[in-house]
Write a structure and sequence with these properties.
Blueprint: E1 9-13, H1 15-21, H2 24-39, E2 43-45, E3 51-54, E4 61-70, E5 75-84, E6 98-104, E7 111-116, H3 118-130, H4 133-136, E8 143-147, H5 151-160, E9 168-172, H6 176-190, E10 194-196, H7 200-206, E11 209-212, E12 231-234, E13 250-253, H8 256-259, H9 263-270, E14 281-282, H10 283-287, E15 301-304, H11 309-326, E16 330-333
Parallel strand pairs: 1-7, 8-9, 8-11, 9-10, 11-12, 12-15, 13-14, 13-15
Antiparallel strand pairs: 1-16, 2-4, 3-4, 4-5, 5-6, 6-7
Helix pairs in contact: 2-3, 2-11, 3-5, 3-11
Length: 345
């Protein structure tokens, strides 16, 4: 394959354009494709896989950087985001923190795009966990349970709508006003009962699919609450009690090595609550057909994702090509375009 020609501009793709170009169905399809690339071992991580700058008081500033190369695309990219967290205010999921993906052609290292990542990250976080449910979820779930009603669970619902038709949705959160507002909004959109409950346990026990997507750092849900035939989706941290991971019929995660960078995951292993021999599969192995998905109607399955930068870059690469095709985005001059300029003496 010949290198791409030199470019004199890099395409800036703003938040509004990402919203216009990418929907939940697209995000799920791209995430599945990237999972297959992982199974084919054609993706290269940086070493270490992430770099963090965490500054405490008085600035409370945090920077996280991750890079990856997708050789099948081909595309390389870096994910950069900064947020503020003083223990009271946390801007991780807010539009006023810095979030960008920078894309480059790995054959030349020439810059291709700078993509605002607020929407792509939000929908990817849900899409990567929900897409494999077509292989790991119940065949005909009737009741969906949402533990948390923030961005993560709302986007999970957007994805789940493309896979299933539910008869009822149960939701819960810490504050009655937020769960009540969520229930009213989605009852109107979906035309089915969406019920706000106070009890996390009741939501999980009654659900055929339960999704944990809170911002809490303590244990949220417990394994005995998950009924026969149900799938529990853990979107972050300790949504499912570590003591219960090994008790599911199948436990599936997105990537072992990436999870090993997360302290709660390492703590669970160090405590002897789970080990790699008890893992059924990584998601890529399931979607690539290397390991089975759900095999029996009464299996209880845990799906846990920590998030893969490969999918962030894959989604932004897809958006970049779509934006070029439609003439969207804002071209910014590169140094190549300004090579005739000279510095002032």
């Amino acid at each position: 394959m010949k290198p791409a020609p030199a470019m004199d501009s890099v395409l800036f793709i703003d938040y509004a354009t990402t919203l216009k170009l990418l929907n939940a169905g697209d995000a799920m399809a791209i995430c599945e494709d990237v999972f297959r690339q992982h199974a084919r071992k054609t993706i290269t991580w940086s070493d270490p896989p992430s770099q963090k700058l965490d500054v405490g008081a008085p600035l409370h500033n945090h920077w996280h950087t991750k890079t990856v190369l997708l050789s099948e695309e081909p595309m390389s990219g870096a994910r950069l985001y900064s947020y503020y967290d003083d223990g009271v205010t946390n801007t991780v999921g807010k539009l006023d923190c810095a979030r960008y993906i920078i894309l480059a052609d790995p054959r030349t290292a020439r810059p291709l795009a700078i993509v605002d990542e607020h929407w792509t990250y939000a929908i990817r976080s849900a899409a990567a966990a929900i897409a494999p449910l077509r292989l790991l979820g119940p065949r005909k779930p009737k009741v969906l349970g949402l533990v948390g009603v923030g961005t993560m669970c709302e986007n999970a619902l957007r994805c789940l709508r493309r896979l299933y038709t539910f008869e009822e949705i149960l939701c819960t959160s810490r504050r009655a006003e937020t769960r009540d507002a969520f229930a009213a909004k989605w009852s109107k959109i979906l035309g089915i009962p969406v019920r706000a409950l106070e009890s996390i346990e009741e939501v999980v026990r009654r659900s055929d699919i339960a999704v944990g997507g809170t911002t809490r750092t303590d244990i949220v849900s417990r394994e005995p609450w998950v009924k026969k035939g149900a799938t529990f989706v853990s979107l972050a941290r300790r949504e499912m009690d570590p003591a219960g991971w090994a008790k599911f019929d199948k436990t599936v995660i997105d990537d072992w090595d990436c999870n090993m960078t997360m302290k709660p995951f390492r703590d669970m292993l160090d405590a002897g609550q789970f080990d790699r021999a008890q893992l059924h599969a990584e998601i890529g192995e399931v979607v690539a057909g290397l390991k089975p998905g759900r095999e029996h109607d009464d299996e209880r399955i845990l799906v846990h994702t920590t998030g893969l930068v490969s999918q962030d870059v894959g989604i932004c690469a897809w958006i970049y090509h779509k934006a070029k095709e439609l003439g969207l985005g804002i071209p910014l001059p590169t140094a190549v375009a300004q090579a005739h300029l000279q510095p002032e003496d």
